[in-house]
Amino acid sequence: MHDIGKIGIPDGILSKKDALTDEEYEIMKQHVEGSIAMIRYLPSLDYVIPSAIGHHERWDGKGYPRGIAGEAIPIGARCLCIADSFDAMVTRRSYKSAMSVADALQEIRRNLGTQFDPQLGQLFIRLVEEGKITPHLS
Question: Do you know which SUPFAM superfamilies this protein is assigned to (predicted)?
Fold first, then answer.
């Protein structure tokens, strides 16, 4: 649900193999608002809105759309940020190869306290390493 707004983003941007231009990145960021607009049509899903809005926020406040930091980011959004980032890393895309689980966990570890909530990130890493979260790899 958090990325449903990507249906409003041009395919050329979604599948671009090169780095996005600043203009394309601004268009890509609009998927958050698009997702919220669609979710609002289903009042029974209102509870997911804070997580969907905040899933691109960063622990250090350098994310979007609001640029909020730390515990001001709803906990569901902080969890979704980790899961969404991990999925993006271990999934092959038209513009990149998939990372190994070990490399993706190392990348999360490297970004604890900047991109990711340090406590939730450590918990996620531990649960994956203990086999309590099993990544679905394609």
Answer: HD-domain/PDEase-like
| pTM (whole model) above 0.90 | no
CA distances from 123 to 31, 70, 81, 90, 108 (A): 28, 16, 14, 18, 11
Burial class, 105, CB count within 10 angstroms (exposed 0-12 / middle 13-18 / buried 19+): buried
CATH code at 8? 1.10.3210.10
Q: Which structural domain range is residue 51 located in?
A: 4-129
d(CA 100, CA 91): 9
Q: How many domains does the chain have?
A: 1
